[in-house]
Amino acid sequence: MATKKRGVPTAIPEKASPRVWLYLVLLTLQYGAQPLISKRFIRREVIVTSSVLTCEVAKVICALFLIARGGGLKKLYNEWTLVGSLTASGLPAAIYALQNSLLQISYKNLDSLTFSMLNQTKLFFTALFTYIILRQKQSTQQIGALFLLIIAAVLLSIGEGSSKGSSGSNPDQILFHGIVPVLVASVLSGLASALCQWASQVKKHTSYMMTIEMSVVGSLCLLASTYKSPDGKAIRQHGFFYGWTPLTLIPVIFNAVGGILVGLVTSYAGGVRKGFVIVSALLVTALLQFIFDGKPPSFYCILALPLVITSISIYQKYPYRVKKKES
Length: 327
What we know:
Shape: globular
Number of domains: 1
Structural class: mainly alpha
Order of helices and strands: HHHHHHHHHHHHH
């Protein structure tokens, strides 16, 4: 009788199905369009925490609706446990919260170009932790495709980030409050992405349930921070929906739909492919800026375009294949 190989099984297919491609394309469009939609419909006076919390509530409502539509609400309620929830979603949510704090610290102490370039290392760490936790190997060609993607991301970062000059801080502050935090945040981003993939594929936690749990945990952390944060003070002074208009709901709901898609992409395509989506979305943003704002894409964006297309093509065409041993 043939024995199974030891290791953690993964549910990521060698080649993405049409449904997975649909999720990837929709998420790319959402990521790419979100900055422009937010800029047009969210006024400067809107308190950031209010829009983020409303987005999390919208994500929970959307996920619950999709679960109910599929007839799985009662089953999910009967099977849900606090321990299982904390194991699957609590740790990634806490890691993402810490990652966001580190990114805020780093951004204040680095120029945009250095910050953006170092932030792209999360693609490498996602692939690394996916291998460590899920034993999901990459072929030599796929590793090459990842490096091409990182080069493309760096080129796009140069085009977008060169407008902000150096912070002028002393070298120690740049190192310990700028470079170190963004690198640690990249490591945490890769770890959290791999953990989410592990929870959905190995622990069989549905993407919708993970979205709900992570939104709840993230919202609780954000609510706790309002006790001392400037946003909390602003909410107490002006009200939760200060600066809102009916149009503000458009980017908030659009972002919530993106959160649902992130869960689906992580579950069915994996964290590494999500990295391809993020970089591809930068090209979509550049294209939309040209169409709606008349801002032509930078030279670096034009250079990055063939690299992104080539890397996606190589990554899909040459998946890792297990070498069969002769019996």
